[in-house]
Amino acid sequence: MSIDTVQSMQPSIDRLQDDEADVLLRLPAVRASVGVARQLVLGLGDHLGLDDDRGGDIAIAVSEACANSVMHAYPNDVAGEVELLAWLTPGHLVVAVRDAGAGISPRIENERAGLGLGLPLMIAIADQVLFHRDGGGIQEVRMRFDVGERG
Amino acid sequence: MTDTEGTLEVRLGPVCGPVVDRVVAALAARADLPIDRLADAQLAANAVCAGAQGNGTGGRLRIRLTPYEGGLTLVIGPVPAGRGPALVRDAAVPGVENVVERLADDHRVEPAAGGGEVLVLRFTRPPAGAPAA
Question: Which of A11, A147, A23 is CA-nearest to residue A92?
Fold first, then answer.
């Protein structure tokens, strides 16, 4: 099968449906959930047989997205949830991080913002990044990672 | 949802084992379970997932992990009414007996809030000062 044929078979990542996801993880939007999200990604990497570098990079990107939700989605200590969905498509791992919160701003100006490296890291590591906010207040960052022939 | 809960829904098959291992361990650690109890929770969850295909799961299984003061509760399902006991029965590993009955401190099948049944497993934390198993 040629690479062109394989690529033409890829569903557009924004069309992947929730009920098609291979994994869904729902967590409270608290700091400790970032570590659990990281373990989810490492588990997917174990299944895919990814080397430590690639698996670690993907875990960093997803952790950053999750950290954004935890830190910025629900201000003023309002309780909320963060959802992670993962799809295993041929040659790719697609991960979505979703919340019902206040949104991600590329320029975060508050004392909890840290160094502001999260979004650039996601964009540098993922092969494709989509940001989406629907009319119901759900917002999502969806990332596609090339995993070669394993996915 | 409390600060230490989590719900994992996973497609049954090869991806299940590695994902369940990592996520159950991460959430069980937040319940301050010692390593041996954490490993028991991983083994039991994986054994249930491995045997769950064909029990009306639709090819997917949900595991909700809720720490409580004395340990960790895993709620697995829902599955159609009447299929709950099969989740226990089919969690057998050849030569090891039934993993749920052997490793969980308590297990029971309960009606699920939205219909069907769930399998509830409990893993208790040893009392402070008790020798490790």
Answer: A147
